[in-house]
Specification:
Layout: H1 17-42, H2 49-73, H3 81-106
Length: about 110
């Protein structure tokens, strides 16, 4: 039998703070999107304008989250897995909020 050793790579790379902020923000925006959809179905679409304005603010916040995740790609000496995940979640949040906002114009 061969003795396989586990190879560890010691690195001085750190986690990107912008990517972690973007990841948290995009996760919160996706949870907020799900909550808004649930509340909208429960009230049969008869929500106040305050919910609509919060939706627009959440849509604008997705652009900030997307900006932070793209900015984190250009940082040096950071681990790249969290910026990739934050970019994917930011794009998903942008598609959810933007799609809902766009459908509101056409329906």
């Amino acid at each position: 039998m061969t003795n396989k050793r586990k190879k560890f790579k010691i690195t001085i790379k750190k986690q990107s703070k912008n990517a972690m902020l973007s990841l948290g923000l995009s996760f919160i925006l996706l949870v907020l999107f799900g909550a808004f959809i649930y509340v909208s179905f429960k009230s049969k679409g008869q929500l106040s304008t305050y919910f609509g304005s919060m939706g627009v603010l959440a849509f604008l916040a997705t652009f900030f989250s997307l900006y932070l995740s793209i900015k984190s790609f250009f940082e040096d000496d950071v681990i790249k897995i969290i910026p990739r995940i934050s970019l994917a979640l930011s794009l998903l949040a942008l598609l959810c909020w933007g799609g809902t906002y766009g459908l509101g114009f056409f329906l």
